[in-house]
Every structure is written in C-alpha cells, then in structure tokens.
Specification:
Structural class: mainly beta
CATH topology of one domain: Tumour Suppressor Smad4
Radius of gyration: 52 Å
Number of strands: 16
Order of helices and strands: EEHEEEEEEHEEEEEEEE
Strand content: 15-25%
Helix content: under 10%
Distance between the termini: 144 Å
Number of helices: 2
CATH architecture of one domain: Sandwich
Strand order of the largest sheet: 7-6-16-15-12-13
CATH class of one domain: Mainly Beta
Length: 265
C-alpha cells in the first residue's frame, strides 16, 4: 500500500504483492507442519507390526440362512442325525414321515374254505358271505386251506363279550384246568352266588367251522336252549354238541351265555 515501507528481506512484486525469501518460507512451513517423532538412533531394532486380522464374515440375513432340518417323527434329537464337526460333508439322512402301523395279529388255524366274489374267506357250507353278504350259490367255488377267521362271539349275562378265535374253558377256577395249562384253551372265569359252577365246568371247542360245547362232568350240569325253543335241555357229560347262532347255554343253575354269529349255513 502507498506510504508503507518494505520489510527487510522482502522484495516488492508488481501489483503490491510481497515476495518472501525461500529461507523464510521454509521456516514458516516447518512451523505449520505437525511435529514428527524423533528418528531412533542407528542400530535400534524396528518392532514388527502385527499382521492385519481378517474381517469377520457378515452374518447371513434371514433370506440367506439355510432352512432348519425337519424334526424327526420318532422323537430322537436332530443333533444325533447331524454329521460330526470337522467330518466330511454328507447328504443329510432322510426322515420318513410315514408312521408304522402295528403288526397285524396272525390268523387262526388252517381250515378248508372258499372265497366269495370279494375274496372273503368263508365256510364251504355257507349260502351267503359272512362279511359282505353276497350270495355264494351261483359262484364256482375252489376250496383251499386258509387261516380261519373268528367264528362269532359269546355274550355273557353280565355283559361281557368274548370273541371266538380259540377254545375257551369256563369254570370257577379255569386257570387250573389241564387244557389251560397246556395252552389248548383260554380260561373264562364264571361264578354264581349258589356256587353251582364247577372249577372246570364246560368247554367251548372250535372244530373246523363249528362251535361245540362239551360238559366236562360238572356237578350241576350244562344245558342248551336252541334258537326259538322255550326250555333248556341238559347235555350229557363229555359229549360235544354243536351250537347254532342264537343258542343259549346255561352253566350250573343260573348263569348263562348266548352264542351269536353271522356265519350261518
């Protein structure tokens, strides 16, 4: 500016701009720069810098996460099915969602019978199928041996229902009978207030497709009332008598049961 004196060491430049000597400019820059740590003396070992750590992988989002394995239907923990840590990758085990059905009970003893049109096994003497009711009269029947189905039920006077798949021994203490001990019959206990039933009283015996009753020499006897009859008829001891569906049997003085079946001939 007009009237100002130039500072010692400065040189005026055109336009009123002052020129600063190079030594003075270097001093000004050194003062403005940040202070650096002093250099270590010669021979000082330089510490090694730690290697940079790899960045942690990004956590998968909900859309990127793999689906969870299905829960086993048999109740075993899913961890038991996973491969061991560090082991080779393998295809995950497939879990069956089909529940196993319980084992079917095997059929009865082998007997000679015939099939109806719908392949139901029947008594060769039957006029109608015991299962579906179709007529057996106009069919060409080919007898063969197959497992015998239940032949009916015993309806006891106390409300019990006993399916006839095997022989049954009825009495006050049937479990002590030799037929039961040898596995040839199932025990069926029956008692009365009069104590008229013997320990080993009557046997319901299945022979082929027939249901027979045998009085075992009981003290008070066994009697049968045929379907539609009014009175009971006492049975001779140790003599098999066939039961027709609807027949009633009296055991001792008062207890009774009735035989029912849809396998009619």
């Amino acid at each position: 500016m007009a009237g100002e004196r130039p500072v010692a060491g400065e040189r005026p430049v055109a336009g009123g701009v002052r020129a600063v000597p190079s030594e003075q400019l270097r001093t000004m820059l050194d003062e403005a720069a940040p202070a650096l740590p002093p250099a270590p003396p010669p021979g000082t070992p330089v510490p090694e810098r730690p290697a940079p750590r790899p960045a942690a992988p990004a956590r998968p989002t909900t859309a990127e996460r793999p689906p969870l394995p299905p829960t086993p239907v048999d109740g075993s923990p899913a961890a038991d099915r996973a491969p061991a840590a560090g082991g080779p990758d393998r295809e995950p085990e497939r879990v069956s969602l089909i529940r196993k059905h319980p084992k079917r009970r095997p059929g009865g003893p082998q007997v000679l019978g015939v099939n109806c049109k719908n392949e139901h096994f029947n008594d060769p003497r039957a006029h109608y199928c015991a299962v579906c009711g179709i007529s057996m009269l106009q069919l060409t029947l080919s007898p063969f041996h197959g497992p015998r189905p239940p032949l009916g039920v015993l309806l006891l006077d106390d409300g019990q229902t006993v399916p006839l798949e095997v022989d049954h021994l009825i009495g006050r203490r049937p479990e002590r009978a030799p037929e039961v001990a040898e596995g040839r019959a199932h025990p069926l206990r029956m008692t009365d207030a009069e104590e008229s039933i013997s320990r080993r009283h009557v046997l319901v015996r299945l022979e082929e497709w027939q249901v027979n009753v045998v009085d075992l020499g009981s003290a008070n006897g066994t009697a049968i009332r045929a379907p539609g009859a009014a009175d009971f008829v006492r049975l001779p001891a140790d003599t098999p008598v066939e039961l027709a569906p609807g027949a009633a049997v009296r055991v001792g003085l008062t207890r009774t049961f009735r035989f029912e079946s849809n396998r009619k001939v």
